[in-house]
Specification:
8 helices, mainly alpha, single chain, 203 residues
Amino acid sequence: SLLCMDAFFRLFWRLNGLTLPKIMQSPWASTSLRDFWSRRWNLMVRDMLHDIVYLPLRAEYGWKAATASAATFFASGVLHAYPILMTIGADWYRLISAIGFFMVQAVLVYVESFFKSQNSDNFEGGICKRVLVSFWVLIAVVLPAPLLIQPLVHVQSCFDEKLSLTDIVVQIMVTTLIAAVALKRSVGAGYGRHQSPYRGVRK
């Protein structure tokens, strides 16, 4: 479950001398797709990419929020595709497929933001509207998910021993976290002690 994964990765980071807040913040309670990705899902990677990619693009290069957000999703795709590259080699179709999942999310977040700016009342209100929004978030994440899952299934088939898809996912997520630790330490202090120089930048 997500809670078990959260506990595992909190322990992993603590063993590396870092204090980590919850990685997952009730993703099933998301009020929009943007809320899902920016406030609830895999917050460790989100915070890292927010500091390293999104804020510098906004503050130093003056990129618009939507463009910086798309670049951040692309960086997330590369970060998640890297362990696949290390496992099965340069299979460009599957690497592009994995990155494509995150680019689809970038487009859907933009479409959602545009729709919300034109029809803000549709994202607020009673239980029925909240149910519809929750259904939208579920569909937006699940329907494109094969773009990311299919490369993982292929990774599983590359092993002689019979590993479950869960084993493969855990291995790739651990590798991703190790890559994230190395990247974070290469650009500043350890996660949890890093003070962003872009605190005044509008998000």
